[in-house]
């Protein structure tokens, strides 16, 4: 991929990255985004968006957006260096590892997204001298923290970027205790990857809150979509209106509270799952949880939680969970139904598949 990325950054070609090991997804992307047909001369790469429903939209990214993101990342982290590539290169997070490496004149060390402890330790050992970075999703970090050798390997890096969605409760604390230098990133394909690090925008990036919605702008912004949608989130020149609910505190730090389309309307009130998840996951008996809404004849929707029980722990009761939530949030936000699962379903690069849980437990 590196020679291809070099050609992209030099303006010699435009690419549409697709997965090499998933013929069905590759066919969907190439067909939906019309591979081989004309595209704006300024577009360097069309990155398929990560949604699983409908037609992929395809973020249109320019060389200037890609390089602005990569340069601002290196500046924020303390300089260019060697990268660990543990995310698929057809996703923006993986593709940006290639862009950063190309601009730094280095070659990333690649391992599978489902890496083993031995693969991770060996990859970090082979990264060479100088500054060393990795870009992971929370599920990968969580898995690595379960093994002392893997955790020590990540702790030896200068920064470990964690994106792809919110971090489960407790993972950040475990990473800190292991000495892993975690940097939480927020962004998406439409912003050439993460553009807000630890709540603060990178140089050249902009953010604001508009009617509770996170709106992003600046140098890393895509030109729009290959397959435009209505309403168009790019309709305001220079800005992208996300589907995320957020707030900015007095010191200018962004907190993302959840997605608009994940909000649960129950009994006339709106509940954001992420806030409930953080409280439920703090229960001693819960290792991981996802909160979602299912249809309810009386309430409109009822709040439901899927739980992974902590190793060696007793299965909590619904009353236990409701009482625990009520110590922090209004009782209206507490789950009215819980389900114990072996694992949380995920899609793409590790994002929670909330829709799969809704389909599984609706009507139960």
Characterization of the model:
This is Acyl-CoA synthetase (AMP-forming)/AMP-acid ligase II. InterPro entries: AMP-bd_C (IPR025110), AMP-bd_C_sf (IPR045851), AMP-dep_synth/lig_dom (IPR000873), ANL_N_sf (IPR042099), ATP-dep_AMP-bd_enzyme (IPR050237). GO terms for molecular function: acid-thiol ligase activity. Keywords: Ligase. By secondary structure, the protein is an alpha/beta fold. The protein is built from 11 helices and 20 strands. It has helices at 2-9, 23-32, 63-77, 92-104, 117-125, 138-145, 148-155, 171-177, 273-280, 318-326, 354-361; strands at 43-47, 59-62, 82-85, 109-110, 132-137, 159-163, 182-188, 193-197, 200-201, 205-210, 213-218, 239-248, 254-259, 264-266, 269-271, 286-296, 300-309, 337-340, 346-347, 351-352. Strands 4-3-5-6-7-8-9 form a 7-stranded mixed sheet, sandwiched between helices. A 4-stranded antiparallel sheet has the order 10-11-12-13. A 3-stranded mixed sheet has the order 16-17-18. The termini are far apart. The model has no long low-confidence stretch (mean pLDDT 94).
